[in-house]
Specification:
- It is a single chain.
- Helix content is 75%, strand content 1%.
- The chain has helices spanning 9-16, 20-47, 49-71, 78-85, 108-124, 126-137, 143-180, 197-214, 217-226, 232-237, 239-253, 258-298, and strands at residues 184-185, 190-191.
- β1 and β2 (190-191) form a beta hairpin.
- The longest helix is centred in the last third of the chain and has 41 residues, at 258-298.
């Protein structure tokens, strides 16, 4: 089969082939760039680890302040917490109580900052890592495949940050409000939530990663459709099984409350439908290209 100007598609790969040693040298160069990028990202994130941690703990701080104000006579709820996070609601600071976070080992907070810097380095340098991966595999792709791969390279970080934003502005407010509302204050007993800094960071980063990766569903499905592994018909026929799998995954990945599970499950179901639509568009484009190639050959 030839393209529009009579070239064999295999010629594109043949022209970019290199000896095995050259591939290994290039792989080493790409890995060195990735490692250097991670080191730079780690240094930057560690230098601002306190500020990053304060940003991540802000939903907890605001939840504590609103709950304290509610105990002083105000009426607030998780939706008020969401509005306060996006700056649409003021917090009555005169009635609030400071948030207490503890650590029980001498170096616990230091190692927490190291983990936070490592997590931040991966997120910060993801575009560099993805670009190096693309540059390494690009010579093995046809020209049209290289052009089709780039949109997914851009969509992946966007979808990850979209999932992370859902965690920060919607999921965490409900989870933290529910956790703080379990406290008991009576004349004879006081049951307070005193989370460790490491436990809180583990909760937040786990949710960020879970939602960020789950939001890659349309990207992964579209890539599989581009490779011919999945079709829109297969996805439509498997919709009921996919929905069951989504709710099972949401029950495993989120805290044990129905609101958190629905917060992940509903967007995942919508993303699955978007994936079906993307694969259908890819199939439609392939059909047009094949029809055009057939007409050229016929001429």
């Amino acid at each position: 089969m030839t393209d529009a100007i009579g070239h064999e598609p295999e010629d594109e790969i043949e022209s970019s082939r290199a000896p095995l040693l050259d591939h290994l040298v290039e792989l080493r160069m790409r890995l060195i760039i990735c490692v250097l990028a991670l080191f730079v990202g780690f240094g930057v994130c560690f230098a601002f680890a306190d500020q990053i941690f304060l940003f991540l703990v802000k939903p907890f701080t605001v939840a504590q302040q609103l709950l304290s104000a509610q105990h002083s006579g105000g009426k607030h709820g998780p939706f008020d917490l969401l509005l306060a996070l996006v700056g649409l609601k003021e917090i009555p600071l005169g009635q609030t109580k400071a948030l207490d976070l503890v650590y029980t080992a001498a170096l616990e907070f230091f190692f927490t900052k190291i983990k936070l810097a490592g997590f931040g380095a991966v997120v910060l340098t993801f575009p560099v890592l993805a670009w190096q991966l693309y540059r390494f595999v690009a010579p093995g792709l046809y020209k049209n495949e290289r052009g089709a791969f780039l949109p997914f390279l851009l969509a992946s970080p966007f979808m990850f940050f979209l999932g992370a934003a859902l965690v920060y502005f919607i999921m965490l407010p409900f989870v933290l409000w529910f956790s703080l509302s379990q406290q008991v204050q009576t004349a004879g007993i006081s049951i307070q939530l005193l989370p460790k800094v490491s436990d809180y960071l583990t909760l937040v980063t786990s949710l960020l990663l879970a939602f960020g990766l789950c939001f890659q569903l349309p990207v992964v499905v579209s890539l599989l459709g581009l490779a011919g592994i999945l079709s829109s018909k297969m996805l439509r026929e498997g919709r009921r099984y996919a929905i069951v799998g989504v709710f099972i995954a949401a029950a495993i990945l989120t805290p044990p409350d129905p609101i958190s599970q629905l917060t992940l499950a509903i967007p995942m179901c919508l993303l699955y439908e978007i994936g079906i639509w993307c694969v259908w568009l890819i199939e439609r484009g392939k059909a047009k290209d094949e029809k055009k190639s057939t007409e050229i050959v016929a001429v």
